[in-house]
Design a protein that fits this description.
The complex is a heterodimer. By secondary structure, chain A is of the alpha+beta class. Helix content of chain A is about 25%, strand content about 30%. Chain A has 3 helices and 5 strands, in the order βαβααβββ. By secondary structure, chain B is of the alpha+beta class. The N and C termini of chain B lie far apart (about 35 Å). Classes of the chains: A alpha+beta, B alpha+beta.
Chain lengths: ~80, ~160
């Protein structure tokens, strides 16, 4: 399945605003993070599980147990600081 | 009138409150909160602040918060304006205004919406200081503020 991955704030500065990722249908959001981590380099650094990273699936706050489907939009970003 | 606006332009409190009250004679109370850019943060001078957001998700998240507020409080209307882009020190960042028949529910709903927004709306602040620009860290105290309403934030 094809996924669109988006990054914001410090993650966007490190990885760019968006990238396309191909994964087997039904993979979880956590599996997507594992795939990105396995690339090493900046991905491994800023998406490390030692870091505070939040995620959204189709523009709603989500967690790593969420199951992904073709065409999903997944976003990774640091804790939010609006207001 | 729209309940949520994400915009680069400044906003006018009087105009926003007038619009919120317009056409509803049942309104007996309006409570508003405005957040502004502090010119000092953790001992450092802050000259400006860049606000990034997640277009689409931001509006949806705040609309959902307002729906939650309507379920919890006896309120008549709500308005949220949040600015994005480059803001200078002392400028206005955010407005939350709530109207209701009596003050108690408006005070509570306004605080609830701000507590929710701080930890659940996808905005990120980057401060410009003499030592460079840096992303603002999320505060555990903001998660605690939302927990008072029985909601686990899990942000900071």
């Amino acid at each position: 399945m094809k996924l669109q991955v988006r990054y914001f704030a410090s993650l966007r500065e490190a990885l760019g605003a968006t990238e396309a990722v191909d994964l087997p249908e039904g993979a979880t959001l956590g599996a997507l993070r594992d795939t990105l981590l396995a690339r090493g380099g900046r991905h491994a650094e800023v998406l490390s599980r030692g870091r505070a990273v939040r995620c959204a699936l189709n523009q709603a706050m989500s967690d790593e147990s969420a199951v992904l489907h073709n065409g999903a939009e997944v976003a990774f970003f640091p804790p939010v600081t609006g207001g | 009138m729209a309940r949520v606006s994400i915009q680069t332009e400044d906003f006018d409190l009087s105009q926003e409150v007038a619009a919120l009250r317009a056409g509803n004679g049942g309104v007996g109370a309006v409570v508003s909160f405005i957040g502004t850019v502090r010119e000092r943060s953790e001992g450092q001078a802050v000259s400006a602040m860049e606000l990034e957001h997640y277009p689409g998700m931001t509006e949806a998240a705040i609309e959902a918060m307002i729906d939650q507020a309507f379920k919890r409080f006896d309120m008549l209307g709500a308005r949220v304006v949040h600015r994005v882009g480059l803001l200078q020190a002392r400028e206005q960042i955010v407005l939350v205004a709530v109207s209701s028949a009596h003050r108690g529910q408006a005070f509570e709903a306004c605080e609830f919406l701000m507590d929710y927004l701080k930890t659940q709306a996808p905005f990120w602040k980057k401060e410009t200081t003499p030592s460079g620009a840096h992303w603002v860290d999320a505060r555990v105290a903001d998660d605690a503020a939302l927990a008072r309403w029985g909601i686990q934030a899990g942000n900071a």
